[in-house]
């Protein structure tokens, strides 16, 4: 190696390794992503352990402030090392949300008697605000990778004998097709992060 390449340091090595991983087996890329995110969020798991005072719902803002600082820090230190299409900042945020949902669930089960309506509403409001902030900042493209794909509907039948039966089924009145008795769910704003922590 020439002296100029050595001075570039580990950041160039990591960037080059990521570019190589990008063209190799996708499992290699996934392993790099998984290890990096796990390392990046390890401090969070220690700081906000169930037995820590800051882990409780009244200090939920501290969790969200922590991840915001971490994402800014990530962008400054590592933003150029990983290929942009890896969406690392979003992936870190999504993993943080999954961990937070699990950790909050555990602590709320453990301390269920301490939950008051006002405290719960406060935590829900802060959490939905945070989810809204994520929706403004990220596309949600990494969320679709984890969602299970719905099976494709069966292909349309080419059997001519079934066409008559399906035609008579379609002659129902509009009121029969709509279930008026069933309550309708309110429409949720188009936010791919809605419920990622709060559900």
From TrEMBL:
GO terms for biological process: retrograde transport, endosome to Golgi. Residues 174-184 have a biased composition (Basic and acidic residues). Residues 144-199 are annotated as: Disordered. It comes from the Eukaryota. Residues 5-154 form the Vps53 N-terminal domain. Residues 162-173 have a biased composition (Acidic residues). One of its GO terms (cellular component) is GARP complex. This is Vps53 N-terminal domain-containing protein.
């Amino acid at each position: 190696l020439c002296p100029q390449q050595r001075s570039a340091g580990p950041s160039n090595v990591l960037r080059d390794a990521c570019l190589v991983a990008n063209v190799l087996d996708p499992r290699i890329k996934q392993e790099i992503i998984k290890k990096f995110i796990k390392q990046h969020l390890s401090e969070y798991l220690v700081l906000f352990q169930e037995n820590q005072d800051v882990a409780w719902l009244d200090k939920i803002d501290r969790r969200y402030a922590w991840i915001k600082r971490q994402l800014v820090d990530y962008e400054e230190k590592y933003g150029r090392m990983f290929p942009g299409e890896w969406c690392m900042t979003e992936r870190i945020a999504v993993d943080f949300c999954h961990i937070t949902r699990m950790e909050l669930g555990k602590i709320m089960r453990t301390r269920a008697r301490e939950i008051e309506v006002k405290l719960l509403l406060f935590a829900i409001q802060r959490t939905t605000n945070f989810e809204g902030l994520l929706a403004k900042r990220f596309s949600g493209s990494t969320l679709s990778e984890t969602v299970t794909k719905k099976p494709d509907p069966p292909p349309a039948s080419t059997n001519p004998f079934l066409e008559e039966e399906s035609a008579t089924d379609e002659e129902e009145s509009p009121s029969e097709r709509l279930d008026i008795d069933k309550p309708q769910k309110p429409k949720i704003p188009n936010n791919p992060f809605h419920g990622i922590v709060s559900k």
